[in-house]
């Protein structure tokens, strides 16, 4: 009975491909526990997620345990780097009785279970097990650790449980646009990095990020730094881009002649990597934003700051808190508004909410397939 009720309640949500005709998602998507739970398997299990910095895994014979999406989708995983420098993403669960294998990151010549002594090589293959001499048809492929897809870009390591699209296809728009930057030289700055907890649905936070429409109304400092009338948008198969143009006196990229933006004073490239990662490139470096669902009304947003070598601008002096708190306030206000009965669905501004519409099309294409 429960399954029947759940399926009747969770109707497919249609987002018209013509933005001029389309309606925004209904309030049910942002307020119901059913849609929130469905997004785990429908959206996030097939997504690419940030794991750690590549240099964390650079030393041979290194293991690094983590959970795929913390408490939201806590698949126990580990990254391992073998003697030859090959990095893999493996299950962190012993194939004997299910114990977590690696509890702490560090050096290791093999992966050993602290429960009954089963051992695995750093490529995940079964190595040894005491007292199993009489077991028939052993070992088999099921005794190896499961492997998962992994790749890296700009010194950032990513993985996926079951990718719906290739890493190359996902990241290619960023590489094509900004491959001329010294991305492999970005350096993490912990003092300029911070986590925030937002009392709102994760997709509301993404919706807000995906348009510059609200900038004059919500972000006065940012509005004073960019030419709002020249702000523009682009979409790709599994990502989209917003580009801000700097006003005179504001920092801007020194673009190469072969850049499609050559001749423009680019203040920032804001890349949204579906479904929940932001790669914000500035002349000084990168602000990596990870939007992690906690509950249907709570989201953690992790801001990680990376700088290029010898930058003239210190990102720690930027109004990170000011802009983020402004966004938090408006998103939390929307979450409260959606609990009312007067509002059900809205419409899109065709020139200003292109990327929001693009995000919703991707999102409900996946969710509807799982209903």
Helix and strand run: HHHEEEEEEEEEEHEEHHHEEEEEEHH
What characteristic shape results from the CA principal axes? globular
Low-confidence stretches: 1-8
Q: Which structural class best describes the helix and strand composition?
A: alpha+beta
Query: Can you give the mean pLDDT?
Result: 94
**Cα gyration radius (Å):** 23 Å
Please report the number of helical segments. 9
Strand runs, count = 18
Give the structure's gist in a few sentences.
Helix 3 crosses helix 9.
Which helices and strands occur, and which strands form pairs?
Layout: H1 2-9, H2 27-31, H3 33-44, E1 49-53, E2 62-69, E3 73-81, E4 87-91, E5 106-107, E6 111-112, E7 119-120, E8 126-128, E9 147-153, E10 156-160, H4 167-178, E11 187-188, E12 194-198, H5 202-209, H6 215-218, H7 220-225, E13 232-236, E14 239-245, E15 266-273, E16 277-282, E17 285-295, E18 298-307, H8 320-337, H9 354-369
Antiparallel strand pairs: 1-10, 2-3, 2-5, 3-4, 4-9, 6-7, 7-8, 9-10, 11-18, 12-18, 13-14, 14-15, 15-16, 16-17, 17-18
């Amino acid at each position: 009975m429960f399954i029947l009720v759940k399926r009747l309640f969770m109707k497919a949500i249609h987002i018209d491909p013509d933005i001029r005709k389309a309606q925004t998602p209904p309030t049910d998507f942002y307020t119901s526990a059913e849609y929130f739970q469905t997004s785990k398997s429908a959206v996030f299990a097939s997504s690419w997620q940030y794991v750690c910095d590549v240099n964390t895994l650079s030393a041979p014979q290194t293991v690094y345990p983590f959970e795929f999406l913390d408490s939201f989708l806590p698949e126990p995983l580990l990254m391992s780097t073998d003697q030859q420098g090959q990095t893999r993403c493996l299950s962190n669960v012993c194939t004997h009785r299910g114990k977590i294998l690696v509890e702490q990151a560090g050096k290791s010549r093999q992966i050993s279970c602290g429960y009954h002594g089963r051992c695995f090589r750093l490529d995940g293959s079964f190595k040894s097990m005491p007292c199993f001499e009489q077991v028939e048809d052993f070992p088999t492929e099921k005794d190896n650790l499961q492997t998962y897809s992994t790749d890296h870009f700009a010194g950032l390591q990513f993985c996926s449980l079951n990718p719906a699209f290739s890493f190359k296809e996902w990241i290619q728009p960023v590489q094509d646009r900004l491959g001329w930057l010294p991305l492999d030289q970005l350096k993490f700055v912990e003092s300029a990095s911070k986590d925030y907890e937002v009392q709102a649905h994760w997709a509301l936070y993404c919706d807000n990020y995906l348009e510059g429409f609200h900038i004059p109304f919500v972000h006065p400092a940012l509005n004073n730094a960019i030419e709002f009338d020249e702000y523009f948008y682009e979409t790709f198969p599994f990502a989209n881009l917003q580009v801000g143009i700097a006003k005179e006196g504001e920092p801007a990229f020194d673009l190469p002649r072969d850049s499609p933006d050559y001749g423009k004073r680019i203040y920032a490239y804001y890349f949204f990597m579906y479904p929940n990662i932001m790669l914000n490139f500035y002349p000084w470096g990168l602000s990596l934003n990870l939007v992690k669902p906690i509950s249907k009304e709570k989201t953690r947003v992790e801001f990680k700051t990376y700088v290029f070598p010898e930058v003239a601008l210190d990102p720690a002096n930027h109004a990170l808190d000011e802009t983020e708190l402004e966004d938090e306030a408006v998103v939390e206000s929307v979450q409260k508004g959606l609990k009312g009965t007067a509002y059900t669905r809205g419409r899109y501004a065709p020139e200003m909410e292109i990327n929001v519409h693009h995000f919703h099309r991707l999102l409900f294409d996946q969710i509807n397939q799982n209903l």
